[in-house]
Write a structure and sequence with these properties.
about 325 residues; binds magnesium ion; 8-stranded mixed sheet; 10 helices; binds adenosine-5'-diphosphate; Rossmann fold; alpha/beta
């Protein structure tokens, strides 16, 4: 039996849309609409989908940086709702976020030392002397130097800043790190260095990752299992091998066909995804992917397909696989 660290059940986040003088709620943006997933201890779970499909909102709802509309979250064998205030704070210490944009997420007026020790101060961890030592250790752990502690964020490159963001997240010795597109804002040449660092830290510190990305090529090397999200829902979920070798959902197939292949002579049919992601304020009926799907059938316009296991834990929400 896999050792489940995080279990998310029926997670929803609806943002109210307000209008008029009285700011009456006229509708909802269904950013996350019934997401279910489990992440096993020590693994990397990749969460992939086009921009706007609800990945960051999922991550932030799990961390309670935003309050979910509904759903249950179990972490490390405990139901989050049943915990007292102090236990809850302890648990959020065990889950940390690495932000997408290392330029925006570090306060430019604070030294690196202040930035890295801040979460430790908030959580009342260590004495000032211990914290200083910890900051130096963390800087070296992420491939920077102890003497960088007195410098400011603008003195660093994008890749170095993301290393600082990682050091900041790791100071509290978390069990789960949610990495929200940690390399999307970086030069391609730097991306693999940061990915390799994350991988190395995972082994060293026994970390569990949720790794968010908008394209399947980034998560390919780092993930053990992958969930594909479309308009607030997971439409396919499986172990990496099965997903990349035998993608089932037409959306996953289209995303994969957009990934450049190493061998240009290999037979590679490119599926063009027509149109943009529809608005989650007014999602299409039935299968929300049907207006863009090349395999659309009548049933797809009216009935929402459920995510089900079609063998060996490969889950898909698509009417093509309903016998
Ligand atoms: N605070 C917010 N208020 C209203 N709508 C939001 C808010 N945050 C995100 N959204 C909307 O929710 C949807 C999902 O956004 P997000 O989770 O950021 O997607 P992703 O990370 O996959 O790009 C988008 O349509 C976005 O505009
Ligand atoms: Mg995002």
């Amino acid at each position: 039996m896999p050792d489940v660290l995080l279990k998310v059940s029926h997670l929803k986040k609806y943002f109210p849309i307000r209008a008029g003088l009285l700011q009456k709620t006229v509708g909802y943006v269904k950013a996350v609409d019934d997401v279910n997933l489990e992440i096993n201890r020590g693994e990397t779970f990749g969460l992939v989908g086009e921009s706007g499909c609800g990945k960051s909102t999922t991550g932030r709802s799990i961390l309670r940086l935003i309050e979910p509309t509904s759903g249950e979250i179990q972490f490390d064998g405990r139901d989050i709702h049943s915990l007292s205030g102090a236990q809850m704070r302890g648990m959020y210490r065990d889950m940390q976020l690495v932000f997408q944009d290392p330029y925006a997420s570090l306060n430019p007026r604070k030294t690196i030392e202040k930035l890295i020790e801040e979460p430790m101060i908030i959580h009342n961890m260590y004495t000032p002397g211990e914290r200083k030592k910890k900051v130096h250790e963390l800087l070296e752990l992420v491939g920077l130097n102890a003497y960088h502690a007195s410098r400011y964020p603008h003195e660093f490159s994008g890749g170095q800043r993301q290393r600082i963001g990682i050091a900041r997240a790791l100071g509290l010795q978390p069990k789960l790190v949610i990495c929200d597109e940690p390399v999307s804002a970086l030069d391609v040449s730097i991306q693999s260095q940061v990915l390799n660092l994350l991988k190395q830290l995972q082994q060293q510190l026994h970390l569990t990752y949720m790794f968010i990305a908008h394209d399947l090529s980034v998560v390919k090397h780092i993930s053990d299992r992958v969930g594909v999200m479309y308009l607030g829902r997971i439409v396919e979920l499986s172990d990496k091998k099965s997903l990349y070798e035998k993608p089932l959902h037409p959306y996953t197939q289209a995303l994969l066909s957009a990934v450049p292949v190493a061998n240009p002579n290999a037979k590679h049919e490119r599926i063009i995804l027509e149109g943009d992601v529809p608005s989650p304020a007014n999602p299409p009926t039935g299968c929300t992917f049907h207006p863009r799907c090349s395999a659309c059938m009548d049933i797809c316009r009216t009935e929402r397909p459920v995510l089900r296991d079609i063998g060996d834990g490969h889950m898909v929400a698509c009417h093509l696989y309903n016998q």
